[in-house]
From TrEMBL:
Source lineage: Bacteria, Pseudomonadati, Myxococcota, Polyangia, Polyangiales
Keyword terms: Kinase, Phosphoprotein, Transferase
InterPro entries: CheY-like_superfamily, GAF, GAF-like_dom_sf, HATPase_C_sf, HATPase_dom, His_kinase_dom, HisK_dim/P_dom, HisK_dim/P_sf
Protein name: histidine kinase
Species annotation: Chondromyces apiculatus DSM 436
GO MF annotations, alphabetized: phosphorelay sensor kinase activity
Modified residues (4-aspartylphosphate): D689
Keyword flag Kinase: yes
Pfam hit, one: GAF_3
EC number: 2.7.13.3
Length: 762
């Protein structure tokens, strides 16, 4: 009979819905059921074979499962916010005494006899076993957990099980056909069954980790149902691991663990190689079926030690049942009796299977809880690393920016000698290059993360690449009075790879060695061939690498500490990028160090190319701090150039550089003005930014390419942009640009590009 209870506002007028919601949330957090912890309450409540509920300190329902709601005769939603006395007045008098005892003592009450009419007005008398546990938030008791077993319902289910002949199909062949096998044990009394089930529900509910749940189960079953109990769970590789053990004698647990290690279920073989004759929990894990073993003392040792283990334990009979979660096998429970103890029968099997179902749910809940905690810790660590990374990037960007802005202000406001002025300009340029390198490193890391970092391979003369990189670090090495020694074995085989990227690797390793080596130290670079491999070694006499940091030196954003205790400048990306580049070439990069103050050695091994040897072209990447003045002079006299950029500063810089080379420059701040200038001036070369408001550079080039040649439709065009990814270059060329040049660009390089497109140089 379904009853409709009054709304919360009409019962206990002093209780407000908002207040109850807040208190129930606090209880949910104390229970560990908040969403961020991932407790599967719905799953546990749906599968629990006993009635479960949580009450607050005023005996109001916070949560209730379907089985208990059915016992009370009204659906779960009509319980929430109502008191137990309102929902189940027939059972309340028998339960009130135990609930008050739990609230006063803080101790659980287990297997209490509760009788009364339920549902109210039905005339049906219920006989239940009830357990009550305190729910705490720290030391404060904020509610009660209840577990009820309807004795009448259990008797009905038990009778149905007894009528099912198929229950005996899972017995082992020995127990089914052995005429000397003992008769099924006398049926366990209903109070004993109900007591054990009630205690199981209470004991297995609380643990929040797998080991605690398994240990609670083992302690529950010994000596109630067995003289010893072993719980095995499958690990990530599918092999069983002992999680919990219990024994009736004092040192029996240690003996169980020792024998389990001596006689592993699968030995050194895989699970698929397990022999069909294997017995005990190994057989149950293999087949997923329960098993009863008898006459163990008379058995042989055909299964490679499993029977020997049981014989050593003096086991007379053993019962094993599988642990499953949603039909997925996760482990097995092994129960054993010793000596002349009676054997196991059908009642024991049914009870063990019922307990295994409860245990599997509890273990799965604990696993989910642990996984949720692990994911939360990982997310928190990721958030912390992100904050540290942003702080580090901010520091590394601000450091050169401070020098650039500071010296620019000095140059504008102070009269300086030519030498000091040149020195100031060198500092500004060096710090600007430092910022550009930082941005390139960040882009490389992004390309690595997305799998889009690619190399262009050709037969490379590695000595030429190494010498170019070493020359780039000689100046900072000389400033610290460091000796750089380069030893190259003659007649090295060519390496198949990307000359620019390989130079980047060598420069990273060499510049790191210079950075971490104190004044007066030494950096050694050697290049030798061993068979089909070329080995590059960069060693220094610097501060070395701590043993705990050595395994992590190639991780992103990892740094060693400088002599002062704070990190050396840089994001710690160079080594991570270098290892990835070496691996793209089919090689390896490893780090070695004897510890702090002992220096460090980085070894690169690359495969020798089988292609015919040829000298590589000049190295692509310019790792030196050369200035525009060092570039060969190229004149653009008479060349008409249209520059398009929405940044006035960029327009001024590009115009000044090109005009200095003799070009006739026209500037446009957007695509619309640029199209007008093209129609009027017919420029020889177009230089356009990509990211502009309104029509961007792609729209400009598309419209330009639709014009006939006499109106400028074939004007050579350069995409000069901060979008420097490989896909950006590809798109620029597909849209119609002739070249893609990333910002910032050296003025000398810009002049050379314009000269090539205008035909001034071939």
């Amino acid at each position: 009979m379904r009853r409709t209870l009054p709304h919360a506002s009409t019962v206990h007028g002093e209780m407000h819905t908002q207040e109850f919601s807040a208190k129930s949330s606090a209880m949910a957090r104390a229970l560990g059921s908040s969403a961020d912890q991932g407790w599967p309450f719905d799953l546990v409540f749906k599968n629990a074979p006993v009635g479960l509920a949580f009450l607050d300190c005023q005996h109001r329902f916070v949560a209730v499962n379907d089985l208990l709601a059915e016992l009370h005769g009204c659906p779960p939603p009509e319980h929430i916010g109502r008191t137990l006395a309102e929902v189940a007045p027939g059972l309340w008098p028998a339960m009130a005494l135990h609930i008050r005892q739990v609230m006063e003592t803080g101790e659980p009450v287990l297997d209490a006899d509760v009788r009364g009419e339920s549902p109210p007005g039905s005339g049906q008398q219920r006989c239940c076993l009830a357990s009550f546990l305190p729910i705490r938030n720290g030391s404060e008791i904020i509610g009660i957990g209840c577990a009820l077993v309807d004795v009448g319902r259990v008797r009905t289910l038990h009778a149905a099980h007894e009528a099912d002949e198929g229950l005996f199909a899972s017995f082992s062949a020995e127990s089914r056909h052995d005429p000397d096998a003992p008769e099924p044990s006398r049926r366990l009394s209903s109070p004993r069954i109900l007591s054990l089930l009630g205690r199981a529900s209470a004991d297995l509910w609380a643990p929040s980790d797998v080991g605690a749940a398994a240990r609670a189960l083992a302690r529950l079953l010994v000596p109630e149902l067995a003289d010893f109990c072993v719980v095995h769970l499958l690990n990530e590789t599918g092999r069983p691991e002992l999680i919990a053990a219990a024994h009736a004698i004092a040192n029996g647990k240690e003996r169980l663990e020792e024998l389990d290690a001596r006689y592993p279920a699968l030995g050194e073989a895989s699970a698929g190689a397990l022999t069909p004759k294997a017995s005990g929990y190994a057989s149950t894990i293999r087949t997923g079926e329960p098993e009863i073993l008898t006459h163990i003392s008379e058995a042989g040792a055909e299964d490679g030690g499993r029977i020997a283990r049981l014989q050593t334990l003096d086991a007379s009979t053993v019962l094993t049942v599988p642990l499953r979660v949603q039909r997925h096998l996760i482990g097995a429970i092994e129960l054993g009796r010793i000596g002349a103890s009676r054997g196991y029968g059908s009642d024991d099997l049914h009870l063990a299977q019922d307990l295994a179902e409860r245990a599997a749910i509890a273990i799965d809940r604990a696993r989910l809880f642990t996984a949720a905690q692990r994911e939360r810790a990982r997310a928190e660590e990721g958030s912390r690393l992100k904050d540290e990374f942003l702080a580090l990037v901010s520091h590394e960007l601000r450091t050169p920016l401070t020098a650039i802005l500071g010296w620019t202000r000095v140059l504008r406001t102070t009269t300086m000698t030519p030498d000091k002025e040149n020195r100031a300009l060198e500092i500004v340029e060096r710090n600007a290059r430092s910022q550009a390198q930082l941005i390139e490193d960040l882009l490389d890391i992004a390309r690595i993360a997305s799998g889009k970092l690619q190399i262009e391979t050709a037969a490379v003369d590695l000595p030429l690449v190494v010498e170019g990189a070493i020359e780039a670090v000689r100046a900072p090495a000389a400033a610290k009075n460091l000796a750089i020694e380069l030893a190259v074995e003659p007649s090295l085989g060519a390496v198949l790879g990307d000359a620019g990227r390989l130079q980047q690797v060598v420069w990273n390793l060499a510049s790191n060695a210079v950075k971490f080596t104190p004044e007066g130290g030494r950096v050694q670079v050697s290049l030798v061939q061993h068979g089909d491999w070329v080995d590059l070694m960069v060693s220094d006499t610097g501060q070395g690498i701590r043993e705990d940091l050595l395994p992590h030196v190639f991780e992103h954003f990892r740094q060693s500490d400088g002599p002062s205790g704070r990190p050396i400048n840089g994001l710690g990306l160079g080594l991570a990028i270098s290892r990835h580049l070496v691996e793209l070439h089919g090689g390896t990069l490893v780090a070695e160090s004897d510890g702090e103050g002992q220096g460090a050695t980085f070894r690169v091994r690359l495969p020798v190319s089988r292609s015919p040897r040829r000298t590589a072209p000049a190295v692509i990447d310019d790792m030196t701090n050369s200035t525009t003045a060092d570039a060969p002079s190229v004149r653009l006299t008479g060349v008409r150039v249209l520059v398009v950029d929405d940044s006035p500063d960029a327009l001024d810089l590009l115009s000044a550089a090109l005009e200095q080379a003799g070009a006739q420059v026209t500037a446009a701040a957007n695509a619309a003005v640029a199209l007008e200038r093209i129609a009027q001036d017919h420029p020889d070369v177009l230089i356009s930014d990509i990211a502009m408001p309104g029509r961007d550079g792609y729209a400009l080039i598309r419209q330009l390419r639709t014009l006939p040649p006499e109106q400028g439709g074939r004007t050579p065009a350069v995409a000069l942009t901060a979008h420097a990814r490989a896909q950006d270059r590809t798109r620029a060329l597909l849209e119609g640009f002739d070249l893609h040049a990333p910002k910032p660009i050296d003025p000398a390089e810009l002049i050379a590009v314009v000269a090539r497109l205008s035909g001034r140089i071939p």
